[in-house]
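Is this the right way to post structure tokens for a design question? Let me know if I should format differently. Anyway, here goes:
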């Protein structure tokens, strides 16, 4: 599974209306740490295919969502289950750490 690009318009359907948990990555092109965790998130999207969805929100193109969720720094990762925010973390982390967070959250 590939990462899903989510916008202010598609967030409701793709994330809040999802039948599987969704990890949302708030990121930007100019953000070094965001680019650093990108490959790990792509690998995790494949590993967790059918179990969770991994979505990316470009904060420069979609300013409404970061404001709505109080994103102050990026990368910011938010986990949603059943349309509810259940966990979040900020900053880059190695794949193993991200995987551990997903496992304990989902």
């Amino acid at each position: 599974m590939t990462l899903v690009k989510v916008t202010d318009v598609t967030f409701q359907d793709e994330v809040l209306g999802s039948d599987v948990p969704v990890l949302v990555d708030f990121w930007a092109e100019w953000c070094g740490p965001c680019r650093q965790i990108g490959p790990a998130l792509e690998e995790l999207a494949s590993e967790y295919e059918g179990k969770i969805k991994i979505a990316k929100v470009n904060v420069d193109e979609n300013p409404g969502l970061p404001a709505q969720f109080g994103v102050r720094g990026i990368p910011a990762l938010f986990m949603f289950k059943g349309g509810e925010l259940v966990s979040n973390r900020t900053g880059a982390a190695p794949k193993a750490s991200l995987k551990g967070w997903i496992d304990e959250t989902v």
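Format looks fine. Someone answered above. Worth noting: The two ends are 18 Å apart (CA to CA). Helices lie at 11-16, 32-47, 64-69, 95-105.
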